[in-house]
Specification:
With 176 residues, this protein is α+β, with helices and mostly antiparallel strands. The protein has helices at residues 3-13, 29-33, 35-48, 123-138, and strands spanning 20-21, 50-52, 54-60, 64-73, 80-89, 95-99, 103-107, 118-120. The longest helix has 16 residues, at 123-138.
């Protein structure tokens, strides 16, 4: 028996494997909390409940969340240590796997990881992360500022310089 086969057999039969938790995220969390509170709670979750990597700062936009972390940067050549920033587009999130050791893995449709494997303090926090990502993905875009009314489309042509088309000149003041 090869060593690899023995390890696989031990993992399958023994208690050494960490089980994936079956979980269906709550996609309506933002509707329940409201947009501003959801962003605040998600930021608090990521900066306060993630044990690894060390998330320092989180920004949530309509299309993505951006987090800055400190630790080993696995995407750098040689896995440099320091601070880095990762952006996760909500539209690319296809699946979030949660494990009984409080880890959450985020994948795209091609089964590629989109960001770090987050290690949360509790299993409830890992599930809340999945709820937030699913909710952010399905929420309608936020209106940051109301658009200006479209009153001013084009400047009117100066009087008397039109080419005689209807609508260029004002009607003459006659007795009609």
């Amino acid at each position: 028996m090869t060593r690899a086969f023995a390890l696989i057999l031990l993992c399958l039969l023994g208690s050494g494997c960490i089980a994936k938790i079956p979980y269906t995220p709550n996609g309506g969390l933002i509707e329940e909390l409201g947009d501003e509170r959801a962003i605040e709670d998600f930021t608090d979750l990521m900066t306060g409940s993630v044990r690894a990597p060390g998330v320092i700062e989180v920004e949530v936009t309509d299309k993505a969340f951006i987090y800055r972390y400190t630790g080993a940067n696995p995407w750098a050549w040689g896995a440099a240590w320091g601070e880095a920033t990762v952006r996760v587009l909500f539209d690319t999130v296809a699946r979030i796997d949660i494990y009984e050791n409080n880890k959450a893995f985020t994948y795209d449709a091609g089964e590629q990881p989109l960001c770090h494997e987050f290690v949360f303090r509790t299993l409830a926090d890992a599930k809340l992360y999945a709820d937030f990502l699913t909710s952010f993905k399905t929420r309608p875009p936020r209106n940051k500022s109301p658009k200006k009314p479209a009153k001013e489309k084009a400047a009117p042509a100066p009087q008397g310089e039109g080419d005689g088309e209807a609508g260029d000149e004002e009607p003459a003041a006659s007795g009609e």
